[in-house]
Design goal:
By secondary structure, the chain is mainly alpha-helical. The chain folds into 2 domains: 79 residues, Glutaredoxin (3-Layer(aba) Sandwich); 116 residues, Glutathione S-transferase Yfyf (Class Pi), Chain A, domain 2 (Up-down Bundle), CATH 1.20.1050. It contains 9 helices and 4 strands. The chain has a 4-stranded mixed β-sheet, with helices on one face. Strand 3 and strand 4 form a beta hairpin. Helix 7 crosses helix 8. It is globular, with a radius of gyration of 17 Å. The two termini are 28 Å apart. The mean pLDDT is 93.
């Protein structure tokens, strides 16, 4: 199994955590440097024509799996313990909804291709770009807070007292918020759950700054 990722890719974080929780070791991890534009090179485009991370190549060959939530659900179906989705349909819908707030609403607005467009097409300076990143990262977390705070199904984690896919997404979004210096004071439930997640080795070892390709400093 080969995982294509990058140390600070929020989507790759989600897949790293899932692999850790399932006890699956990627035989090879390939770093695709998003900041240098390696995702646009022909070699990686053959792996994922979209030029996005992560991508997971399975042992049996064939096209790579792509899009973090699709990869996580594949891992959950093929390695069902521990489960990352609830057994009941309503619970699964809630977990998927929470996950999509981060993965489909918040994260896509801060990825490198958007930052590149803001800089090179709209000519926004670094300060303006950073305000954009912090704003949209925070908006996603506020939306999650609205669904999590005071909800009967919220427990130690996003949905009850067991880790689900929603926690993987929440954790990656909070890590992004930390990189972009987003104010998280209005998100007490989100931050409580994040703290619980980071107590687990599966989350802790997946942190961007603990990856082999991470820089020595904490700068993003």
């Amino acid at each position: 199994m080969k995982l294509y990722g990058f140390w600070r890719s929020l989507a790759t974080i989600r897949v790293r955590v899932a692999l850790n929780l399932k006890g699956i070791a990627a035989d090879e991890q390939v770093s695709v440097n998003l900041l240098k534009g390696e995702q646009h090179e022909a070699a990686f485009r053959q792996v994922n024509p979209q030029g996005a991370l992560p991508a997971l190549v399975l042992d049996d060959g064939g096209p790579a799996l792509f899009q973090s939530l699709a990869i996580i659900e594949y891992l959950d179906e093929t390695h069902p313990r521990p489960p990352l989705l609830p057994q009941d349909a309503r619970g699964r819908a809630r977990v998927r909804g929470l996950s999509l707030i981060a993965a489909a609403d918040g994260h896509p607005l801060i990825v490198p291709r958007v930052r590149h467009y803001l800089e090179h097409e709209l000519k926004l300076d670094e300060a303006a770009r950073n305000r954009w990143l912090a704003h949209w990262t925070g908006e996603a977390l506020l939306a999650m807070e609205g669904h999590l705070g005071g909800h009967a199904d919220t427990g130690r984690y996003c949905h009850g007292d067991s880790v689900t896919m929603a926690d993987l997404c929440l954790a990656s979004q909070v890590i992004g918020a930390q990189f972009f210096k987003t104010d998280t004071a209005r998100m007490p439930t989100v931050m409580r759950i994040f703290a619980e997640c980071m107590k687990l080795p599966a989350f802790d070892t997946a942190h961007p700054l603990k990856q082999a390709d991470a820089p020595q400093s904490s700068s993003h």
